[in-house]
Amino acid sequence: MRLSELEQRLQDPAQAEALSLFGGCPSIVVEVDEADLAGRESRPSNASRGASSVPVVGPAKCPVIGIVNSGADEADMPALLDVAVPSLEEAERIASAVGESPVAAMTLVGLTRVGEDLTIPDRLITESLAYSALQHGAEFQGWLAGRDRKPPAPEPEDPPILIDRQAGELHLLLNRPQKRNAYSGAMRDALCEALSLATQDPTIERIVLAGKGPSFSAGGDLDEFGEATDAGVAHAARTTRSAARLMHSLRDKVEVHLHGACVGAGIELPAFAGHLRATRDAFFMLPEVRFGLIPGAGGTASILSRVGRLNLNYMALTGDRIDAQTALAWGLIDAIDDA
Question: I want to staple 332 with a disulfide (CB 3.0 to 4.6 A). Which of 74, 104, 271, 327 is the partner?
Fold first, then answer.
């Protein structure tokens, strides 16, 4: 449909309800032309929209995928769009992906819509609440039941993070190379302890985080997926011991060196840092939606700030690999190392 038609239909509560997952509509594809972009102001905040006396078009109850042929910046895109792509084929590919995990997709775009107007700490709270709810949803539980789970292989009794203090610098090295530095509970605890040290020691002026082995981090440890049995307790644990919150508080001191796979938590946490460097072989992915989840290590807070809502949604809804050059153009990373 045309963007103008969607705007009109969303003004009618009955039609707006029909354009939802529960109306048999897991996503909406709209065509956006130059006339739709011309004369539009930059997307207003939720606060300014709510303060207006003019009738407001409410957001769609499912992801809105816009076909936009122009090279407009995100700030110039219509507020109703959650993703912008250049072709119908690309829009249909994303719609198909949404259809595989429609509840997770709906939750993601709802979270990123409100997240634009929240502080980082508030984004982390809303992300955790949404993630905890989805952990007990049918989509994630179905993924858990369908995967071929093998007993985890024994690991060396090495610390999950190597810590080296050099004068005013703290060097942290993720140390599970045999698991591509999968982000486990033990690694989270070790990272939180190291970062907490830095918050209490003003003589630490610089923190450098890197990963040992062929990848910086392949993301959350799949062997631990599904262990949470209480959504409320999971939320309390996630927000109490939060590497994301600590990374954000120390961002002006933190530099992260990325290489190889940077997946899920392997980019969500680094994106809080003040400076991100990556090798040319680095790639970035947010695969959680296809599991029936959303990014849960802080990505809807950190990556949203770096690349904007539309690019974040694109990454999470498609699960595509984003190469280093694209990541640099988007602002997901700050530099590419040639060496």
Answer: 327
Strand order in the sheet with 275-279: 161-166, 169-174, 206-211, 254-258, 275-279, 335-337
CA–CA separation, 172 and 240 (whole Å): 22
What residue spans of the chain are helical by DSSP H?
Answer: 3-10, 13-18, 34-37, 46-51, 88-100, 102-115, 120-135, 138-146, 185-200, 231-240, 243-249, 265-268, 299-307, 309-318, 324-330
Tokens of 121: 């700490």
Q: What is the C-alpha separation between 239 and 323, in angstroms, rounded?
A: 31
Of 264, 260, 249, whose CA–CA distance to 299 is shortest? 264
**The three-state (H, E, C) secondary structure of 61-100, written as one string:** ECCEEEEECCCCCHHHCCCCCCEEECCHHHHHHHHHHHHH
pTM for the whole thing? 0.91
39: buried, middle or exposed (CB in 10 Å: 19+, 13-18, 0-12)?
Answer: exposed
Beta-strand pair 283-285/335-337: unpaired
The strand pair at 322-323 and 161-166 is best described as unpaired
CA atoms within a 13 Å half-sphere pointing along the CA-CB vector of 24: 0
**pLDDT band, residue 61 (cuts 50/70/90):** very high
pLDDT tens digits along 75-119: 788 999 999 999 999 999 999 999 999 999 999 999 999 999 999
* Residue 135 DSSP SS3: helix
CA distance 124 to 121: 5
